[in-house]
Write a structure and sequence with these properties.
five-stranded antiparallel beta sheet; alpha+beta; about 50% helix
Protein backbone atom coordinates (compact mmCIF):
# COMPACT_ATOMS: atom_id res chain seq x y z
CA UNK A 1 0.00 0.00 0.00
CA UNK A 2 1.06 3.67 -0.14
CA UNK A 3 2.20 3.52 3.50
CA UNK A 4 4.38 0.45 2.84
CA UNK A 5 2.05 -2.08 4.45
CA UNK A 6 1.56 -5.39 2.66
CA UNK A 7 -1.86 -5.84 1.06
CA UNK A 8 -3.86 -8.96 0.23
CA UNK A 9 -6.43 -9.80 -2.44
CA UNK A 10 -8.40 -12.63 -4.06
CA UNK A 11 -9.35 -13.18 -1.28
CA UNK A 12 -8.33 -10.34 1.05
CA UNK A 13 -7.07 -12.46 3.96
CA UNK A 14 -6.41 -9.32 6.03
CA UNK A 15 -10.12 -8.57 6.07
CA UNK A 16 -11.64 -11.82 7.35
CA UNK A 17 -14.05 -10.60 10.08
CA UNK A 18 -13.75 -11.65 13.71
CA UNK A 19 -16.31 -9.49 15.54
CA UNK A 20 -19.45 -11.04 14.05
CA UNK A 21 -20.82 -14.55 14.51
CA UNK A 22 -20.60 -15.22 10.77
CA UNK A 23 -17.04 -13.93 10.69
CA UNK A 24 -15.99 -16.17 13.57
CA UNK A 25 -17.57 -19.15 11.83
CA UNK A 26 -15.66 -18.24 8.67
CA UNK A 27 -12.37 -18.25 10.56
CA UNK A 28 -12.87 -21.86 11.63
CA UNK A 29 -12.40 -22.78 7.94
CA UNK A 30 -8.71 -21.81 8.12
CA UNK A 31 -7.16 -24.95 9.60
CA UNK A 32 -3.71 -26.34 10.23
CA UNK A 33 -2.75 -29.59 8.51
CA UNK A 34 -2.53 -32.98 10.20
CA UNK A 35 -0.15 -32.89 13.18
CA UNK A 36 0.24 -29.10 12.94
CA UNK A 37 -1.22 -26.06 14.70
CA UNK A 38 -1.62 -22.42 13.70
CA UNK A 39 0.58 -19.99 15.62
CA UNK A 40 -0.28 -16.29 15.70
CA UNK A 41 2.17 -13.74 17.11
CA UNK A 42 1.22 -10.07 17.05
CA UNK A 43 2.71 -6.81 18.19
CA UNK A 44 1.14 -4.88 21.05
CA UNK A 45 0.14 -1.31 20.08
CA UNK A 46 3.00 -1.04 17.60
CA UNK A 47 1.70 2.16 15.95
CA UNK A 48 1.63 4.01 19.28
CA UNK A 49 5.10 2.70 20.12
CA UNK A 50 6.40 3.97 16.76
CA UNK A 51 4.75 7.34 17.50
CA UNK A 52 6.53 7.45 20.88
CA UNK A 53 9.84 6.52 19.25
CA UNK A 54 9.56 9.02 16.40
CA UNK A 55 8.19 11.94 18.42
CA UNK A 56 10.48 11.30 21.43
CA UNK A 57 7.69 12.72 23.58
CA UNK A 58 9.02 12.20 27.13
CA UNK A 59 5.61 11.48 28.68
CA UNK A 60 4.60 8.99 25.99
CA UNK A 61 8.01 7.29 25.98
CA UNK A 62 7.97 6.96 29.78
CA UNK A 63 4.44 5.52 29.69
CA UNK A 64 5.65 2.63 27.52
CA UNK A 65 8.83 2.13 29.54
CA UNK A 66 6.76 1.94 32.74
CA UNK A 67 4.45 -0.64 31.15
CA UNK A 68 0.81 -0.77 32.12
CA UNK A 69 -2.12 0.20 29.92
CA UNK A 70 -1.33 3.14 27.62
CA UNK A 71 -5.01 4.03 27.08
CA UNK A 72 -5.64 4.19 30.83
CA UNK A 73 -2.54 6.37 31.28
CA UNK A 74 -3.64 8.68 28.45
CA UNK A 75 -7.12 8.91 30.00
CA UNK A 76 -5.59 9.87 33.35
CA UNK A 77 -3.57 12.62 31.62
CA UNK A 78 -6.48 13.98 29.56
CA UNK A 79 -9.13 13.89 32.29
CA UNK A 80 -6.77 14.90 35.10
CA UNK A 81 -7.48 11.93 37.38
CA UNK A 82 -5.45 9.17 38.98
CA UNK A 83 -5.15 6.01 36.82
CA UNK A 84 -7.23 4.09 39.38
CA UNK A 85 -10.07 6.58 38.87
CA UNK A 86 -10.23 6.03 35.10
CA UNK A 87 -13.59 4.60 34.06
CA UNK A 88 -14.18 2.29 31.10
CA UNK A 89 -15.78 5.18 29.21
CA UNK A 90 -12.75 7.43 29.89
CA UNK A 91 -10.42 4.69 28.67
CA UNK A 92 -12.51 4.16 25.54
CA UNK A 93 -12.38 7.89 24.76
CA UNK A 94 -8.61 7.96 25.33
CA UNK A 95 -8.16 4.96 23.02
CA UNK A 96 -10.10 6.76 20.27
CA UNK A 97 -7.91 9.84 20.76
CA UNK A 98 -4.65 7.83 20.81
CA UNK A 99 -5.43 6.22 17.46
CA UNK A 100 -7.16 9.32 16.10
CA UNK A 101 -3.94 11.31 16.51
CA UNK A 102 -2.13 8.81 14.25
CA UNK A 103 -4.81 9.14 11.57
CA UNK A 104 -4.84 12.96 11.80
CA UNK A 105 -8.36 12.99 13.17
CA UNK A 106 -9.72 16.40 14.12
CA UNK A 107 -12.53 17.44 16.50
CA UNK A 108 -15.24 16.63 13.93
CA UNK A 109 -13.97 13.09 13.33
CA UNK A 110 -13.56 12.44 17.06
CA UNK A 111 -17.01 13.86 17.88
CA UNK A 112 -18.54 11.47 15.33
CA UNK A 113 -16.49 8.49 16.57
CA UNK A 114 -17.48 9.07 20.20
CA UNK A 115 -20.95 10.58 19.57
CA UNK A 116 -20.09 13.67 21.60
CA UNK A 117 -20.41 17.42 20.87
CA UNK A 118 -17.62 18.95 18.76
CA UNK A 119 -16.73 21.35 21.60
CA UNK A 120 -16.12 18.40 23.91
CA UNK A 121 -14.05 16.58 21.27
CA UNK A 122 -11.90 19.68 20.74
CA UNK A 123 -11.36 19.89 24.50
CA UNK A 124 -10.18 16.26 24.58
CA UNK A 125 -7.72 16.84 21.73
CA UNK A 126 -6.44 20.11 23.29
CA UNK A 127 -5.88 18.30 26.59
CA UNK A 128 -4.05 15.48 24.77
CA UNK A 129 -1.60 17.90 23.18
CA UNK A 130 -1.22 19.84 26.44
CA UNK A 131 0.10 16.64 28.03
CA UNK A 132 1.94 15.28 24.98
CA UNK A 133 3.61 18.47 23.76
CA UNK A 134 6.39 16.49 22.08
CA UNK A 135 3.83 14.78 19.84
CA UNK A 136 2.34 18.17 18.87
CA UNK A 137 5.77 19.56 18.02
CA UNK A 138 6.73 16.44 16.03
CA UNK A 139 3.49 16.53 14.00
CA UNK A 140 3.95 20.22 13.17
CA UNK A 141 7.61 19.77 12.18
CA UNK A 142 6.89 16.76 9.95
CA UNK A 143 3.95 18.41 8.20
CA UNK A 144 6.14 21.46 7.49
CA UNK A 145 8.95 19.22 6.16
CA UNK A 146 6.52 17.18 4.04
CA UNK A 147 5.07 20.35 2.51
CA UNK A 148 8.57 21.65 1.73
CA UNK A 149 10.00 18.37 0.37
CA UNK A 150 6.87 16.94 -1.23
CA UNK A 151 7.32 13.57 0.46
CA UNK A 152 7.80 11.77 3.79
CA UNK A 153 10.12 8.93 4.68
CA UNK A 154 9.65 6.07 7.17
CA UNK A 155 12.30 4.94 9.64
CA UNK A 156 13.75 2.44 7.15
CA UNK A 157 13.56 4.72 4.13
CA UNK A 158 10.22 3.96 2.46
CA UNK A 159 9.21 7.15 0.60
CA UNK A 160 5.67 8.38 -0.03
CA UNK A 161 5.29 11.37 -2.31
CA UNK A 162 2.55 13.86 -1.44
CA UNK A 163 1.75 15.99 -4.52
CA UNK A 164 -1.59 16.92 -2.89
CA UNK A 165 0.22 19.72 -1.00
CA UNK A 166 0.69 21.62 -4.28
CA UNK A 167 -2.73 21.12 -5.86
CA UNK A 168 -4.09 24.41 -4.53
CA UNK A 169 -7.11 22.68 -3.03
CA UNK A 170 -7.67 23.00 0.71
CA UNK A 171 -9.19 19.56 1.16
CA UNK A 172 -6.27 17.91 -0.66
CA UNK A 173 -3.74 19.79 1.47
CA UNK A 174 -5.59 18.62 4.60
CA UNK A 175 -5.48 15.05 3.28
CA UNK A 176 -1.71 15.38 2.67
CA UNK A 177 -1.18 16.56 6.24
CA UNK A 178 -3.00 13.54 7.63
CA UNK A 179 -1.23 11.20 5.19
CA UNK A 180 2.20 12.57 6.12
CA UNK A 181 1.85 11.65 9.80
CA UNK A 182 -0.03 8.41 9.17
CA UNK A 183 2.59 7.21 6.69
CA UNK A 184 5.52 7.82 9.04
CA UNK A 185 3.78 5.92 11.86
CA UNK A 186 2.02 3.08 9.97
CA UNK A 187 4.90 2.84 7.51
CA UNK A 188 7.32 2.55 10.42
CA UNK A 189 5.23 -0.29 11.85
CA UNK A 190 5.25 -1.96 8.42
CA UNK A 191 9.05 -1.59 8.24
CA UNK A 192 9.42 -3.32 11.60
CA UNK A 193 7.21 -6.33 10.86
CA UNK A 194 8.79 -6.82 7.42
CA UNK A 195 12.23 -6.77 9.04
CA UNK A 196 10.95 -9.35 11.56
CA UNK A 197 9.62 -11.50 8.70
CA UNK A 198 13.01 -11.50 6.99
CA UNK A 199 14.82 -12.34 10.26
CA UNK A 200 12.43 -15.23 10.98
CA UNK A 201 12.40 -16.59 7.43
CA UNK A 202 16.20 -16.87 7.39
CA UNK A 203 15.95 -19.29 10.32
CA UNK A 204 12.89 -21.35 9.32
CA UNK A 205 13.15 -21.56 5.50
CA UNK A 206 14.43 -25.15 5.52
CA UNK A 207 12.26 -26.40 8.40
CA UNK A 208 8.66 -27.66 8.64
CA UNK A 209 7.68 -24.22 10.08
CA UNK A 210 5.74 -22.23 7.44
CA UNK A 211 5.00 -18.51 7.62
CA UNK A 212 1.57 -18.47 5.98
CA UNK A 213 0.17 -14.99 6.44
CA UNK A 214 0.79 -11.45 7.64
CA UNK A 215 -2.17 -9.42 8.88
CA UNK A 216 -0.86 -5.91 9.56
CA UNK A 217 0.82 -6.34 12.99
CA UNK A 218 0.38 -10.12 13.20
CA UNK A 219 2.30 -13.05 11.74
CA UNK A 220 0.64 -16.46 11.35
CA UNK A 221 2.55 -19.72 11.02
CA UNK A 222 1.76 -23.39 10.55
CA UNK A 223 3.91 -25.28 13.03
CA UNK A 224 4.37 -28.98 14.01
CA UNK A 225 2.42 -29.37 17.26
CA UNK A 226 5.38 -30.85 19.15
CA UNK A 227 7.53 -27.81 18.31
CA UNK A 228 4.93 -25.16 19.18
CA UNK A 229 6.43 -23.77 22.41
CA UNK A 230 9.96 -23.55 21.03
CA UNK A 231 8.86 -21.92 17.77
CA UNK A 232 6.51 -19.49 19.53
CA UNK A 233 9.32 -18.36 21.86
CA UNK A 234 11.70 -17.98 18.93
CA UNK A 235 9.23 -15.95 16.83
CA UNK A 236 8.29 -13.72 19.75
CA UNK A 237 11.96 -13.02 20.50
CA UNK A 238 12.71 -12.17 16.84
CA UNK A 239 9.71 -9.86 16.58
CA UNK A 240 10.52 -8.04 19.81
CA UNK A 241 14.12 -7.50 18.70
CA UNK A 242 13.57 -6.73 15.00
CA UNK A 243 14.62 -3.12 15.65
CA UNK A 244 15.76 -1.10 18.66
CA UNK A 245 13.25 1.59 19.57
CA UNK A 246 13.25 4.12 22.41
CA UNK A 247 10.41 2.06 23.92
CA UNK A 248 10.05 -1.71 24.33
CA UNK A 249 8.56 -3.70 21.45
CA UNK A 250 6.17 -6.31 22.84
CA UNK A 251 4.49 -9.25 21.13
CA UNK A 252 2.13 -11.98 22.34
CA UNK A 253 1.46 -15.47 20.98
CA UNK A 254 -1.69 -17.54 20.49
CA UNK A 255 -2.15 -20.98 18.96
CA UNK A 256 -4.91 -23.36 17.94
CA UNK A 257 -6.09 -25.92 15.40
CA UNK A 258 -7.89 -23.25 13.35
CA UNK A 259 -7.79 -19.47 13.00
CA UNK A 260 -10.75 -18.93 15.31
CA UNK A 261 -9.78 -21.34 18.08
CA UNK A 262 -6.57 -19.52 19.04
CA UNK A 263 -5.68 -19.47 22.73
CA UNK A 264 -3.05 -17.35 24.42
CA UNK A 265 0.27 -19.08 25.10
CA UNK A 266 1.91 -18.55 28.51
CA UNK A 267 5.34 -17.48 27.24
Amino acid sequence: TVTGRLSSSSPNLQNIPVRTEKGRLLRTAFCAGEGNVLLSVDYSQIDLRVLAHESQDPVLVQSFIDGGDIHTQTAAQIFGVMPLMVTEQMRSSAKAINFGIIYGQGPMGLSQALSIPMREAKEYIDNYFKNYQGVRRWIDENIAAARKNGYVKTMMGHIRYLPEFNMGVGSMASFAQRAAINTIVQGGSADIIKKAMVDIFKEVRNTPVKMVMQVHDELIFEVPAERLTAVASFVKEKMQNAVKLRVPLLASAKAGKNWYALEKLPL
